[in-house]
Each structure stands twice: as C-alpha cells, then as structure tokens.
Amino acid sequence: MLIPLANAPRDYAWGATSLIADLEGRAPSGRPEAEVWFGDHPGDPAETPDGRTLDRWIAEDGAGAGIDAPLPYLLKLLAAASPLSIQAHPSKSQAEAGFAREEAVGTPRDAAERTYRDANHKPELIVALSDTFRALAGLREIDDTRRLVAALGPGAAPLAERLAQTDASLAAIIGWLLSDGADEARAVIAAAVAAARSSSHLGAVGTAEETVLGEFAAELELARTLEEGFPGDPGIVVALLMNLVTLRRGEGLFLPAGVLHAYLEGLGVELMAASDNVLRGGLTPKHIDAEELVRVLDPEPGLPPVVIGRPVGEGVHQYDVPVADFALLAVTPPPLGVDVSLDGPAIALATAGALTVTALASGASETLEPGRAVLVTPDENGVRVAGQGELFIALPGR
Fold it and tell me: Enzyme group, top EC level (predicted)?
C-alpha cells in the first residue's frame, strides 16, 4: 500500500518564515514554520487521507500491511532562521536508566523540569536542502580552542586557565560554565563580541593574537550574533568550544549519542530515532540540567561528523549511519526511472521536481511534489521512482 501523508508546520520561534513554503510552492503563512513531521510519533503524527493520524492507522490497519509496531524513526523537514538550543542526546542505556529514575519519583512526563520523556535514544541525521546549512557539531580540537580563547585577552583568563590544564576536561568546563561560571562566561562573551567587532581589520598581518582572531572570525561573529539573541547566555561560550560547520546542499551531519550540537540556519531533511530526550546546554529559556548533560556528553574533541551520500544504484545514494533505527536514501532517478528495494516500512518525501512513486508489488502509484510524502508498507517490497526531481526515503536501519 501507498498511504499519502500530510502535516502542518510547527511554529517554533526559531523557524524560518519562507523556507518550507518556498519548497512547497505556496505563499508563506506569516508565522515561523520550523518543522513538518512525517511519522507516527504521538507528539504530532502525520495524517492519512481518511482523516486518521498515522499512529492510529498503524494500530488499526498496520499489521495487515506488515507493520506490527510503531515506526522506529521520525522524518522531518526542518527550517531554521535562528539557532536552536545547544543540546546532546543520551544513549539507549542512559535513556532507559534516566527514564526509570524520573518515573520512580513521579515527575510528570510533561513537566518543564523533566529530562527523560521516554526510554529511547535519539541519534539524528540532517541533510542540507538549502545551498548552505550552518550548525555547531562536536567539540573543537582543544589546542585550537586554547589558541582562540588565549587570544581573547584578560576577560577570557578564567576559561583560558581551565583549558590550559594538562588534564583539562571539556565536559567539566561546560558543566562549570552552565552552573557556577556564569560571571566568567559574561566576561568571555564581552571579549569575543569585542573581537568580532574588530574582526574585519584582522588578518594574516598583525600580532599573533590578531592573526588567531582573524582565523576564527566566523566563530567570533557567531558569538556576536548569539549575544544579540541570548544576552549573557553561558551557551555562547559553550558555542565557542564547538566546531562551526557549513554543509553544502546534499551533505549530511550525523549526531550520535553524546555529541553536542545546535542547528543555526538553513533548510534540511532530518531523520532521527523516535524520542523526545534532549539535554540542553544553552541558548534556550528551557530547563538545563547541567549535571545530566555532563554525564551523557561525549567529551572527546574531533572533526565534525559530516556524512556524504554513497552511491548504491543508478541515481540512488545512501547516507551510512551506524544505527539500527533508521537509514536514509536520496533518489534522483535517471530518465527511465529506477527500482528501489525497501526492507521494512518506509516514508518517501519529495524535495524537488515532480516524481511518480509506484509500488513494486501492487502497482499502486502516487505523484509527489516537493513537501509531499507517502508511507510505503513492507508488503510492497519497494518502489519504482520516475520523473525529474529529488526524493528522500526513510526506512529502518540494518
């Protein structure tokens, strides 16, 4: 079976006003449009043509089509005009333990101070649809961060001293910033903003400090922008410890458990395990549990986890991620179309052009334009994709 899916954009404050509307070829609503969910997550399940939500459809009719449980993933369109909160997600075992703890003490699942709203992990993959998609992802190599912070001058001295220790722990430093280091963080922010304002005059010629600040001009300008939206927020200093990433269209970013991240701006297709567990690290008015964030945080610095689609067929690329919850295919069919085998329930989402999706077993067919999606049930074994455009297919991982 092919089940068309639809949903309304969610109007989170950080959402863009026109990116999703432009993709769908309609007039903007005038409100922020941050995410469109295509899945059966109870927080905002997609709707089917008969008026049922997808979670209800699966509960009532899914078994007959080979779907015997909720989908292990959630597929989204995501459009950011301003930064999301800095955050990390727990591993499966951490989520199970944390959920059990909060259940045992009776914290309501919808309470603002609740950290674990379910017992699942939440690895994420986002693929850029806009020409560029900016994000913070992972912790920068500590020697580079030491150079940056040292160049900020006396205002950043408390942070520089902590970073200079031979046994410096970025996780412990982040915990300090979010709990006891607020005053010192404001001084670092002021130093970074001052450096950003003079960054246009910085370059390879000058003092050693000026050269370093010129090297990190984009990071300093981000700090200046964040200070305008989140004045005095210690998360701005946390952002200075992270990799600033610019994805090009079609490039992906995979964020496993413990990796600190924040989307900044752009349009993308996001695929994640079905969970609401978020440990925040700044740039938000929401609850921050600094102690639990440090507990789940991966403290190892390194390069940002960029993923490039791997060819697996004519016009078909796969984004390889090491999780069993989901897999993602990108399809740009050749002139004669292409058959795509699918193992398990899949959701196909068009992001460009006009494409015809035909079920291999039943021959059922749907034409998809950008922003339109369809559930492909497992009994179809796959689909044939024809036309000119781009299609992303989410399915369970292996």
Answer: isomerase
